[in-house]
Specification:
By secondary structure, this protein is mostly helical. It has one domain. It is about 65% helix and about 0% strand. The protein is built from five helices and no strands.
């Protein structure tokens, strides 16, 4: 899914499936890397905050993919802990 699809769905209020995809993607990245996402900064990040962040990201990067935005958000919210974990050599 790309940012144009995200933005259009959010604009016409038919974005439930896109929002659910994003939440699942973030949960999968979090579990797969062992990186806390939703409480990474000591307070719960709300779904609405995530959706708004993606709205702003997609407005700034209209040719990007939502997956790329999700990884960017993971790194931003975890202080790059996600990047360190997925970039680390296997044990």
């Amino acid at each position: 899914m790309n940012c144009a699809q995200w933005a259009e769905a959010r604009k016409v209020r038919t974005s439930n499936v896109y929002e659910t995809y994003l939440i699942g993607l973030l949960n999968g990245l979090s579990v797969g890397s062992g990186t806390e996402f939703w409480f990474a900064k000591g307070a719960e990040l709300k779904r609405e905050q995530v959706f708004y962040w993606m709205d702003v990201y997609c407005q700034a990067h209209p040719l990007s993919e939502v997956f790329t935005g999700a990884v960017t958000l993971m790194n931003e919210n975890t202080g790059n802990e996600y990047h360190r974990r997925v970039g680390a050599p296997p044990e």
